[in-house]
What we know:
Two copies of one chain form a homodimer.
Chain A: H1 4-13, H2 21-33, H3 36-52, E1 54-55, E2 62-63, H4 69-72, E3 80-84, H5 87-96, E4 102-105, H6 123-132, E5 137-140, H7 146-161, E6 165-168, H8 184-192
Parallel strand pairs in A: 3-4, 3-5, 5-6
Antiparallel strand pairs in A: 1-2
Helix pairs in contact in A: 1-2, 2-3
Amino acid sequence: MFSPLIEELIRALRCLPSVGPKSAQRMAMYLLEKDPDAAVLLARSLTQAVEKVGRCNQCRILTEEVVCALCNNSRREQAFLCVVETPADVLAIEQAGNYHGRYFVLHGHLSPIDGIGPEDLGISLLEQRLANEPLQELIVATNPTVEGEATAHYIAECARAHGVAVSRIAHGVPIGGELEYIDGGTLAHAFHSRTAFFPAAE
Amino acid sequence: MFSPLIEELIRALRCLPSVGPKSAQRMAMYLLEKDPDAAVLLARSLTQAVEKVGRCNQCRILTEEVVCALCNNSRREQAFLCVVETPADVLAIEQAGNYHGRYFVLHGHLSPIDGIGPEDLGISLLEQRLANEPLQELIVATNPTVEGEATAHYIAECARAHGVAVSRIAHGVPIGGELEYIDGGTLAHAFHSRTAFFPAAE
């Protein structure tokens, strides 16, 4: 229906997550009709980002620097290292705003079925940091999925081998959530992981 | 939070219609982490499309050809010309599949407040076609909005001046729609534009 170049643009736009054929078509029409300058800018920005953005040498977050701004920030607590699956997780934790340590981004989780092993997640780099940095605690914040849990256990073992204390972030009913609408798995976990109201005096 | 190039990419992605900050961030992460090849392809496609896509000399639809495939298709009925506001409207009508004439795309509607007059909508080109082509009927399919109606009236007068029959597509209750959920304006129009069940014999 559309001319070849427009069809190609629509196909290319569909590579974006959650963009279907209708949205891609609307985006193509919008860019070509209303805002070709934005399209040129987007093209340039995409090219530059793909060319220059790599991973931070220390935490593997996406950045065009050798060492990212977070790792370079001397005000971040050196004693805490938080392991997450994706850069977006770092953003979510930063937005929550109560963690002031550093990060380590796995870019995925262990998944033998997909052929993703420890080397793909940069575990050797993590082990180097465990061995060489004055870490007090490794906080494992992988997702509470089967693969995320397996990855958490693997990392916990590494930390133990290096004599670093390791913790897992809590999972349970979200703050502000209503029990009525929480799924059974989460509720079961919340009961299992209940904490004492009045911790026993030691 | 992100490095400058990534921030720039997120900003650039927000130019896309209905992409907010969260989606733009997810898109940027996805492209950089999972599919940089798609990003390169998208950049190339955007550049090419913006460079080469213009308007068809006859119907003003977006195309990289001088005359678009629809206008060049000799099997399309020469006698009918349908005037629409956007290229997406052409697609919608083509997908409905019962119109086999040609099109004329205005790329907008008359809107004195925004300084959009007949010359911006290519009305002079439309008048040339009205004067020179063996047209039987001009079908006005602008949107049923205030501006669309005003535009329709303007075009109808042009067609009348050239002695070409002119019609407006019907507006009313959508097929399969339930009266209960139809807005008052549409219902009022549907009553006003009711057609006789048994047209009077002439």
